[in-house]
Amino acid sequence: MASLCIQLIFFLFLFPISALSRKNGIVPLGSTLTAGETSASPWLSPSGDFAFGFQEVQHKDLFLLSIWYHKIPDNTVVWFVYSTNPVPRGSTVKLDPQTGLVHCDPRGLQLWSANVDSAQIDHGFMNDTGNFILKGNDDSWLWESFKHPADTILPNQELKIGDFLSSRKSATSFSRGRFYLRFRDDGNLVLVTKSVSTNVDDDAEYYNSKTSDSRDPLYSGSRVTFDGRGAMYIMKKDNQTEQLSPFSIPPASENYHRATIDFDGVFTHYYHPRTLTGNPNWKALWYLPQNICISLRANHRGSGACGFNNICNLKNGKPVCECPKRYVLLDPDDTYGSCIPNSTLSCAEVDGGSAENLYDFEVVSDIDWPLSDFEQIHPSNERVCVQKCLHDCFCAVAIYRENNCWKKGPPLSNGKADKTIHSKAFIKYRKSDESKPKDRGTFIRVEPVLLGTSFLVNLIFITTACLGFYLMYRKKRIISFEY
């Protein structure tokens, strides 16, 4: 009997601590994961539904510290840290007794930490709701991933006043994008855009739950709840609820649920069967807003759902962006980005020849950039509309509809395709560029004053240079004569 006990103790001593954590979700202090180490398994929840660790990104030998659905073939990521980009092989995450989770690159340089700042950390716990928790000696919760979401919330998770989700930059990028879901101080849940380059809220609001009551704050929203059944609602301070999800929800016992603000700006509730038969995938249950191509148009700032000069077309609740004819993508890898003309429009050229000889139009039905007008002509007909745009060097597109003509100048914003508007778009392009290969040139707007100034400067420069050469030559001749 004593021999058996000694063997059992010896076995437990040799058995890796991390292997024990894979059974019950507990992660002991000092546990470490290394990116790209195939022998090291992630920290799993008791059921194995969720995993915490490093996931390879697009087979590029780069790894993302994240939490994901472990039993789904595509290992859908539900939590990550925006401040850290995918990291190289050899990067680590460690459960440190003083600061909690610490993420370092292969050289040991710290990239991120949970920054618990407590000597009371006892262990980590990856639970079956997808929440990674740092627990204290008294079993208190010192830190949890649910309070630091990225782009997704899960059942049993809440958003409180001031909390937000931010979209990714693209479907394949884990950098921060320009769309946000915010739960504002006034109790409204809103979808807004933010300038990525300046990191400043431009408040281009394209959804508002209208759950704020300025007359009586008791009726305002206090938190957003995604309950264990998969229902989402705004809980008000008087305990009344404002439903966001439909009343018919696929049962959570048979389906995984998540709600994500996607890179395209649409906040979508997805569900996925737990049984992996018949190649199942994520399906959309509901989404906000109902039509992002129109919703973002209501605000006069920003490019819209797609980039500048781009056109938004709604398909299955999602924006599909496409450059109009005679335009190409500024970034060929970003179909949701801005488009630029592949021919130049210049006010300088109009003086050099008739507009009819210089320009022509592509005609496209049922598209518009409704916020880019700089002149409306009424009454009008198609011929007049085209001529007005042709002879205006600032006109890039003319829209004709119901005896009205709108001249539009670049950059064209909030573009949309809509078969109900019954309009014609006349897209101006330069004839001489027809045979040239497409490039990513830009509009050239040249004012006469600038042209005159440029000409004067060049004239002074050339005259001065010629005079200098003449004086040097004359001096040389005088010196030669003296000798």
UniProtKB/TrEMBL annotation:
Superkingdom of origin organism: Eukaryota
Classification via SMART domains: B_lectin (SM00108)
Residues annotated as transmembrane: 449-473
Protein name: G-type lectin S-receptor-like serine/threonine-protein kinase RLK1
Pfam families named in the record: B_lectin
Keywords on record: Glycoprotein, Membrane, Signal, Transmembrane, Transmembrane helix
InterPro entries: Bulb-type_lectin_dom, Bulb-type_lectin_dom_sf, G-type_lectin_kinases/EP1-like
Record-annotated Bulb-type lectin domain positions: 24-147
Gene: LOC113737655
Organism: Coffea arabica (Arabian coffee)
Signal sequence residues: 1-19
